[in-house]
Amino acid sequence: MTRQIFLPYSVDSWGSVGHGGAYGAFSAHSRNLQEMPFGRAGEERVSADGATAAGGMARTIFRGVTHLALDAKGRLAIPARHRDALSPPGPVDGKPLPMVITVDRSRCLLIYPQAEWEPIQSRLMSLPSFKPENRAVQRLMVGHADAADLDSAGRILVPSALREFAGLDHQVALVGQGNRFELWDLARWQQVTTETITSAEGPLTSELEGFCL
Prior knowledge:
Elements: E1 3-6, H1 21-30, E2 34-35, E3 43-46, E4 51-54, E5 57-60, E6 65-69, E7 75-77, H2 80-86, E8 99-103, E9 109-112, H3 114-125, H4 132-142, E10 146-148, E11 155-157, H5 160-166, E12 171-176, E13 181-185, H6 186-199
Antiparallel strand pairs: 1-2, 1-3, 3-4, 4-5, 6-12, 7-11, 8-9, 8-10, 9-13, 12-13
């Protein structure tokens, strides 16, 4: 059974940054998944396994939590079911495209397929850099971004600077977030999850009011 979901292909709501600053606007937009009725523009078909198709092009929604381990060299084995979506064949020579790893203010890492990252990077760099808030996000997101190639064993090397930023040592959690993955230190992820469950008893944001599962 399929359902219809709108997925943003790029960050296109930066005109008014507002309360949360540039990063707040980016975070709110990049996490925005809105249910849409059948037959409207911008929709994609999403099957039960997460594969999508729009205009004849397959796309994947990343979801679920997987506990993994970095090896002594800082390499991470990407689960086999996600490798083709994170590192698809290139259009010219068919060689797998690198994925992109960058940082998040939550002290985790973000892992994007190249096609998902490029419009975000372009939009970020189009922001006026004379504004300190914009420049700070450009430094954080683009300045830390690095390409990661899958090796023959399906592993990527997580750069040491990014491992240090996120406090990654050995045990990690790979968390699907729609168009990207978050990579957390496992203990930190469990702490954040506990805090989220505890705070769920508090008041809801206006966007979540009336939202039901």
